[in-house]
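Exercise (ungraded).
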Amino acid sequence: MHPNEPARSEHVISGTGPSEADQDEYKRLSVNAAKGVGVVTAVHRGWDNAVTVTDFLSVSYDPPTILVSLYSLSRMAEALDEVERWGLSLLASDQRGVADALGYEGNPLVGLLDHVPHFRRADGAAPLIAGSLSWFELRTVAKHEVATHTLFVGEVTAMGRAAVATARPLIRFQSGYLGAGNELPANDERRPT
Amino acid sequence: MHPNEPARSEHVISGTGPSEADQDEYKRLSVNAAKGVGVVTAVHRGWDNAVTVTDFLSVSYDPPTILVSLYSLSRMAEALDEVERWGLSLLASDQRGVADALGYEGNPLVGLLDHVPHFRRADGAAPLIAGSLSWFELRTVAKHEVATHTLFVGEVTAMGRAAVATARPLIRFQSGYLGAGNELPANDERRPT
């Protein structure tokens, strides 16, 4: 047992399928997964699309491969269904404003990036977020539908960093952010009291 | 442009496919994705299997669905290929020792969890890590091969928490951990100077 004998909860989903209460409990528990914050970008029908994401992961080194999970009916999923090239930028701890600005898919595409510093590797390429810890240009190689979402799997075609090497990550946890500058060094051994 | 005009790097993968240097650069850049730390568990051929993971994500609320990406030739991937039920426990910031103890797949299965506090919902069910922020019992509903890895997609059948509500997450970043107790409050607005 944990030395502090924590309050433990248990919630079982009935075999007949999840109820609204099951989904609510899942939302409460799944936000305990801390996640780095990124921005997915693509040029679709001539417009820059960009949306803040937390549901992405590195799948493989060989070849370098990343996947992002997007709500299948979202604007960005529609864009990635139609264009093969996209970008992913990993936000630094000082980019909470970027995460917030691009966090709502209802934002008009007109002027979407006017106040978000960005660059691109070539005319017509996906915009990449200036100041990000790392950026990746990707080419979709597979798509998988899973429940309400689509997994877009991309192979990296180019990559780099756009922030100083000591920059720290922006992290989503529960209903807020962690990460604005006071993390522990990597080898810290302290424990919470 | 970013106001501090950061050092920016750029690395392009040639169309003939990734070289070892490309993979090395990808490793350097992809570890800038901060990730919560979890433990995947399963009972396979009578043995408790458990391995520390960072490559998992919540795919959907309806139904509650999680995926984990495992190296296809790993012991845990072999286990999940053969058993339908598994567990995922999200580690708290004071569980770095658990993450380290279960971080190597070469560990013998005999006694693997002897020094890791755990519980299970029923005889023969997957062990779950005591003191974890959240735990999930899952049933595999899909598998997708992606490059060197397999995505195991599971629907949640039961879930809960095993730590006090104020517990903080253990977070992997670059080659170390963040999270041992001094994070910012969620609504903090400070910026690094």
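Further reading is listed at the end of the chapter. For now, observe: The first strand of chain B starts at residue 11 and ends at 12. Residues 36-169 of chain B form a domain with the Pnp Oxidase; Chain A fold (CATH 2.30.110.10).
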